[in-house]
Amino acid sequence: MTQHTPRTPSALDAVADAYVTRSAEVNPLLATAIGVPGYDHLMTDLSPAGHDAQAAVDRDLLRRLDELERDGSTPVDEVDRVTLAAMRERVGLQLELHESGEPLASLNNIESPVQQLRDVFDIMPTGTVEAWENIAARLNAVPDAIEGYTASLAEAARRGNVAAIRQVREGIAQARELAGSDSFFRGFVTGEQVDAVLDSSSACSLVRAELERGAEAACAAYGGLAHFLETELAPQAPAEDAVGRERYALFSREFLGATVDLDETYEWGLEELARIVAEQREVAREIAGPDATVEDAVRVLDADPARRLEGTDALRAWMQETADEAIDGLAGVHFEIEGEVRTIECRIAPTQTGGIYYTPPSDDFSRPGRMWWSVPADVTEFNTWREKTTVYHEGVPGHHLQCAAAVVAKDTLNSWRRLMCWVSGHGEGWALYAERLMADLGYLDDPGDRLGMLDAQRMRAARVVLDIGVHLGKPCPQEWGGGTWDAEKAWPFLLANVNMPESFVRFELNRYLGWPGQAPSYKVGQRLWEQTRDAARAAAEARGETFDLKAFHARALGLGSVGLDVLRDALA
After folding, report:
1. SS3 sequence of 160-198
2. Once rounded to an integer, what is the mean pLDDT over residues 405-425?
């Protein structure tokens, strides 16, 4: 945790704080996600009018920023300068996306309203009767939200913007599952969590009744969504997965907070993939002998009972132990990690998509930072050599240190900087940077654990190639089929470079095809983080100073999540 010098909030901080409040009012799902209390019983309007309402809030913010600059009341210090640059970049880009109509068409297999309307219940408080009343109210509001969502999809289709048929089919399958007899919603409102809070009193009986009514309403709404997607949207959906250069460039800026040369980045991705494969081969020979391949080393590691976990209970316990050990080892040595930041909670997610993700703490830390593992139904065995680097990515010094350090910085940063601003390339780039850092610090000296880190880095490099290659229609290397990149060529390429079960790889491929620009933000973000660090080191040495890596990290994390162009300028 970075040590902050308290500062007097500025006029710009007041505007930024007010923007968070107004955004929470317009988007209660966002309020829950960032841990702002008071909105958990409300639902976001996902209709075109709801999108317009957020755009109006965004335009008003940019007008207020202009006024503050004109009257000379901002910026008053370096914190203000970063806030101003970051808000102009982020909110300006949100408006650019709104004006393009892209948010109306949001539909994919991982991060669209299909998932968001369900996933929000994972992070809602459940420890009081009031909390379950909020859940009941929000469940009963799901039908209106889905009605608004379908209206947005229909409007986007009218404008000629429909997700590829692959993503529509994924949405249909997920919506049907949430509408079915084994729906998450029905189990959620009748499980042990409910019984632990609600007793048999008449008041609690009413809450239970509202919960059950809400669950059935949500199930029925998802059934209606599946019908809409199948009968109205699917006939209009294009077969082509690629979004093209113009749209992709906009998405790339959204996820990086930086403008990069996409053609150069594609070529770098090919080179980086080759470099990582060569490094993997060296480590493989350490594991399995001088003539061993990477595949040979994987077989040796997978056969080692000391590296194997059986069942999700063992997985969760190992995740927690590994995360806690990292915090204990790094605190006070490589990072300052104090108070609430020392707590991370590891959980098995109620979904079964195969994803591993982190959710930040709430503003008051009543909800701690959490690492989630969404385990596919057919996966019951886990190998620690593959996953130690993942714990560092999601936990400390990765996302948990990064996010919690920002949330706790109330004496320095406004609430927009602490809670609301999130840039994928900054956050995911830092998490990949953190994986390499842990290798440099000796935490991955075991050859198996190091191979696991390289395995994860290889996947991230491969998807830079795949994502840019498919969506921009780049030439495909001959070894992967030649011609032009498409989903058919991407599948064997991904299988060859991702050492995971096919169900996970299939989910990942569909994710890249339907969420353009997001997957490369990890590896490209890591590249930009490393370039920023190296520039800071060169500048220190040019001044005749010894570069202090710990101080660099403290200063960088103290900024919170900002676009990578803003990060580079702030640390120059």
Report:
1. CCCCCHHHHHHHHHHHHHHHCCCCHHHHHCCCHHHHCCC
2. 95
What token pair was written down for 567?
């990060």
Give the Cβ contact number of residue 245 at 10 Å.
14
Say if residue 323's pLDDT is above 70: yes
d(CA 89, CA 3): 27
- The β-bridge relationship of strands 344-348 and 356-359 is unpaired
The secondary structure of residue 491, as a DSSP letter, is H
Q: What are the residues whose beta carbons fall under 8 Å from the beta carbon of 72, sequence distance 6 or more?
A: none
Res 178: pLDDT: 97
Buried b (16+ CB within 10 A) or exposed e, 160-189: ebbbbbbbbbbbbebbbbbbeeebbbbebb
Q: pLDDT tens-digit profile of 157-167?
A: 999 999 999 99
What count of other Cβ atoms lies within 10 Å of the Cβ of residue 128?
Answer: 11
pLDDT band for position 2 (cuts 50, 70, 90):
very low
Q: Which of 423, 421, 394, 391 is nearest to 406 (CA)?
A: 421
**What average pLDDT does range 24-40 have in this prediction?**
96
Pick from 113, 108, 121: which is nearest to 148 by CA?
A: 113
Structure tokens, 409? 């910085």
- pTM for this entry: 0.93
**Torsion angle of the four alpha carbons 384, 405, 93, 572, in this order, in degrees rounded to the nearest 10:** -100
Specify the residue for token string 């906009």: 250
Going along 256-301, which residue ranges are E strands? none
Q: Under DSSP, is residue 369 helix (H, G, I), strand (E, B) or coil? A: strand
Segment 281-299, tens digit of pLDDT:
999 999 999 999 999 999 9
Residue 3, pLDDT above cutoff 60: no
Compute the mean pLDDT over every residue in the chain, rounded to the nearest whole number.
95
Angle at 545 between CA 542 and CA 546, to 5 degrees: 115
pLDDT of residue 365: 93
Residue 4, pLDDT above cutoff 80: no
Q: How far is the CA of 397 from the CAs of 43, 319, 331, in angstroms?
A: 34, 14, 10
Give the mean pLDDT of 396-425. Answer: 96
Q: Which residues have CB under 8 Å from 181's CB, separation 6+? A: none
CB of 424 closer than 8 Å to CB of 525: yes
The CA-atom distances, in angstroms, between 22 and each of 15, 28, 36 are 10, 10, 12
What is the per-residue DSSP string for 74-103? ---SHHHHHHHHHHHHHHHHHHHHHHHTGG
Q: Which residues of 392-412 are buried (b: 16+ CB within 10 A; e: fewer)?
A: bbbbbbbbbbbbbbbbbbeeb
Residue 494 is predicted with a pLDDT of 97
Mean pLDDT of 338-342: 94
> Which single residue is written with the structure tokens 């198996």?
448
Q: Quote the tokens at residue 25.
A: 């009012």
Helices (H) and strands (E) in the chain, counts: 24, 5
Query: Which two tokens mark 31?
Result: 């309020």
DSSP 441: T
User: Is-contact 339 408, C-beta < 8 A?
Assistant: yes
> How many whole angstroms separate alpha carbon 81 and alpha carbon 301?
50
What is the rounded average pLDDT of the residues 309-323?
A: 97
Contact criterion met (CB below 8 Å) for 467 and 493? no
**Cis (ω within 30 of 0) for the bond into 397?**
yes
Count of beta carbons in the 10 Å neighbourhood of residue 281: 14
Distance between CA atoms of residues 257 and 92, nearest Å = 11
